[in-house]
Task: inverse folding
């Protein structure tokens, strides 16, 4: 089986390859093609993968290319993990937004909209090429904003594109541990929403499938604040909600505190990652051997994970990340389980970004949502979930409307639609600010010149 990774020079690729090395079952991936526009980054990641594969019998072969069409031909699965504009673009997204006093996070608020406006046209081009060159391939989308980009690609690939995210996996694992579940993998999660905008409403153990374990969590403050989301949101707010939100909802529930923390930080998250990864890739540039490449990558990864959402934790007084959250087991776990389920008909239940198909009544069938799905050889099938509460439904409807404006802008080149996307977002409080944001982003990103004022 052949796997193509778009954005193959990206930092997360060794996590996926490590999962492939541990897969010894029949029908596993035997060849990985890495595609990236940056040959130096491809070379660096190839060294890390070679070091990973040292001593592993029958490790998947790895090839690299900067030609997208060549990368797609013959692929059974395509992992899309691109970053349009690179980390320099992410840093600019943050700084433009913060200068206007609004959030610039890469998937939430103004930053997420800017990233989506850059990414949608590129993702649509990839989807069209996959449909032409590898019509039988399944696309697994890692690219952020994951729900938005998956929906853009689904307009050309239908059900053959599925978005993934590790946030629900981590949330479910942490809550299951807090509830004393011996094996978190043996629980069913009732989770509902959009990517980075979802709520955990229920936890059901295999041996008691009819009993929701989650309410017990709210009875013990020590237990409720023993995991990251409990510390981020606070016991009282979680009790008020009666659910456990995805960690990204901290940007909504504590927006002022978070924006203040980001503005006071020494540098933004994007700027930190830009500088950190530049050091890693520069250090790999003169390498002639793969020896030691994996250790260098792992040191960089550990620092990256330890500082994840540091400003949010500081704003909430949540302290440092727990050791368990610094381990891998997110994206690569979901991706491998999804690929196995489709390729081998090994049925699995995973939280994925897929077309709604009636799962959330307030959204149309084509809207991409993030919900538990049963996966088999025919693809991902969304399962029934608890209805959204009033405020949850309001946020989901508002953010989906914003995503639709981004899709309209990305496909038509309409600056009017782009301004509307900024202005309608719950975390942008002014049409005037929305207009200034678009002006700022067009100045920062030459690639947004496609947005024309006269286009509709």
Result:
């Amino acid at each position: 089986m052949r796997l193509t990774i778009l954005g193959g020079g990206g930092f997360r690729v060794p996590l996926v390859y490590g999962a492939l090395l541990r897969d010894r079952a029949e029908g596993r991936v035997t060849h990985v093609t890495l595609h990236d526009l940056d040959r130096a980054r491809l070379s660096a990641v190839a060294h890390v993968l070679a070091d990973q594969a040292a001593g592993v019998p029958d490790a998947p072969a790895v090839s690299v290319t900067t030609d997208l069409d060549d990368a797609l031909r013959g692929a059974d699965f395509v992992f899309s993990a691109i970053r349009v504009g690179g980390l320099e673009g992410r840093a600019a997204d943050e700084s433009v937004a913060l200068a206007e006093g609004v959030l610039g996070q890469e998937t939430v608020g103004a930053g997420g909209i800017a990233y989506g406006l850059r990414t949608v046209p590129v993702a649509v081009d990839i989807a069209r090429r996959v449909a032409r060159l590898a019509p039988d391939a399944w696309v697994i989308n890692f690219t952020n904003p994951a729900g938005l980009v998956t929906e853009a690609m689904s307009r050309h690939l239908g059900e053959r594109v599925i978005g993934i995210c590790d946030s629900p996996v981590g949330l479910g694992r942490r809550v299951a541990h807090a509830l004393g579940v011996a094996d978190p993998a043996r629980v069913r999660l009732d989770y509902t929403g959009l990517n980075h905008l979802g709520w955990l409403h229920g936890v059901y153990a295999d041996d008691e499938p009819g009993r929701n374990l989650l309410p017990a969590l709210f009875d013990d403050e020590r237990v409720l604040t023993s995991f990251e989301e409990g510390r981020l949101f606070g016991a009282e707010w979680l009790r008020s909600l009666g659910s456990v939100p995805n960690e990204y909802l901290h940007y909504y529930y504590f927006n002022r505190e978070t924006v203040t923390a980001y503005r006071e930080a020494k540098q933004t998250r994007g700027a930190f990652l830009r500088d950190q990864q530049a050091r890693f890739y520069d250090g790999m540039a003169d390498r002639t051997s793969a020896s030691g490449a994996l250790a260098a990558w792992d040191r960089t990864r550990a620092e990256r994970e330890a500082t994840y959402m540091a400003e949010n934790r500081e704003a909430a007084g949540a302290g440092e990340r727990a050791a368990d959250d610094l381990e891998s087991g997110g994206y690569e776990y979901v991706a491998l389980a999804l690929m196995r389920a489709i390729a081998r008909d090994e049925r699995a239940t995973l939280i994925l970004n897929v077309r709604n198909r009636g799962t959330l009544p307030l959204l149309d069938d084509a809207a991409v949502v993030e919900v538990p799905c049963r996966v088999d050889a025919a693809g991902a099938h969304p399962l029934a979930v608890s209805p959204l509460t009033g405020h949850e439904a309001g946020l989901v409807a508002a953010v989906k409307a914003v995503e639709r404006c981004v899709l309209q802008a990305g496909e038509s080149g309409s600056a009017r639609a782009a301004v509307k996307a900024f202005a309608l977002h719950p975390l942008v409080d002014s049409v005037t600010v929305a207009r200034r944001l678009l002006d700022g982003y067009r100045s920062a990103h030459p690639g947004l010149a496609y947005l024309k004022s006269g286009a509709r």
User: Anything to note?
Assistant: The radius of gyration is 21 Å. The chain has a mean pLDDT of 93. The chain has 20 helices and twelve strands. Residues 109-133 form the longest helix (25 residues).
